[in-house]
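Retro notes (design track)

What went well: tokenization of the new backbones is finally stable.
What didn't: we kept losing track of which sequence belonged to which structure.
Fix going forward: every design gets posted as structure first, then sequence, in one message. First example under the new rule, 175 residues:
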């Protein structure tokens, strides 16, 4: 799935690519009243049966890549799927058991708009940011559990990261 307005994507491994699996995913993850752009696979015509008031547009790839009347196209999802395939090729062999994990990793990086080919620090910072949002720490508990060598003033910490040059020492605040 690909949301054009936000450029966010979501991928699923399914045992069988059929209408039942597809419609279960759409029903669970696509909001009511959403416009869904698809090709002309016959099973897609049953989307109206999902009773969520989806606006269904189609493009017939036998005739054109962009429907001349509705401007419907599937170029966005095809483009992001191409990125997924390139990403998976770099891994050089994936067990089907782990495929969903690789798709989740790609999705997370893509949705966070992390330029992993530019900086690994950006990826690491995004991971820490996500972890801190999912598992907010109780600063008082952390303070009690920190090694005494790391004498940090957590009550005054505003969560900003400090950049330190190699070899530079950090001045510690003592209580």
């Amino acid at each position: 799935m690909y949301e054009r307005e936000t450029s966010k994507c979501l991928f699923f491994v399914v045992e069988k690519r059929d209408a039942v699996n597809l419609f279960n995913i759409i029903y669970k993850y696509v909001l009511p009243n959403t416009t869904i752009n698809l090709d002309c696979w016959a099973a897609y015509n049953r989307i109206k049966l999902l009773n969520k008031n989806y606006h269904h547009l189609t493009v017939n790839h036998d005739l054109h890549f962009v429907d001349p009347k509705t401007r419907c196209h599937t170029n966005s999802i095809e483009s992001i799927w191409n990125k997924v395939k390139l990403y998976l090729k770099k891994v050089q062999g994936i067990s089907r058991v782990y495929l969903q994990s690789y798709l989740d990793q790609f999705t997370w990086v893509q949705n966070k708009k992390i330029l992993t080919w530019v900086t690994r620090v950006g990826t690491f910072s995004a991971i820490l940011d996500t972890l801190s949002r999912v598992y907010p720490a109780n600063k008082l508990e952390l303070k009690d559990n920190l090694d005494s060598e790391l004498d940090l003033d957590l009550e005054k910490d505003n969560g900003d990261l400090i950049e330190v040059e190699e070899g530079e020492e950090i001045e510690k605040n003592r209580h």
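Added context from the reviewer: The radius of gyration is 23 Å.
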